[in-house]
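During the reporting period the student researcher (J.K.) took over the structure-prediction task from the postdoctoral fellow and processed the backlog of single-chain submissions. One of the processed entries is reproduced below for the supervisory committee.
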Amino acid sequence: MFRKVAVGGTFDMLHAGHRELLRVAFTSGERVVIGLTSDAIARPKGAESYDRRLARLKRFLEEEGFARRAEIVRLEDYYGPAVSDAELEAIVVTDETLARAEEINQRRRQRGLRELEIILVPLLLAQDGKPISSRRIRRGEIDREGRVCA
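J.K. obtained the following structure tokens:
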């Protein structure tokens, strides 16, 4: 287990895939820094407001018993503290965000910081075999658990 890991995202509609990503982060680290994208980043994607996403995230962390080990930071860019926090040891990502983690490591090297261990979490698939995503949920294709909607 790492002392401190990072995970980030929009966490819109807080679906089963997000919950799995967060569970892996908390299984991997004693402390977890969760970057939650600001409205400036999330709104163009059609996401819910920052306050609503933050409330859902906090509720999930409380329900899972993770809240005391979590630090939530607002991301005004795609990197947040992951590029500058010397205490971070690992970052938890999916295939969709792997390139961003590699970019973060490049920026850390430029700053003289050690690279983060990248923990890759497979995308969770819906009932139809396609990845669960907030976009698909908003379109009414699937629900938050990945069940296909009628």
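The committee noted the following: The chain has a mean pLDDT of 97.
J.K. will present the remaining backlog at the next meeting.
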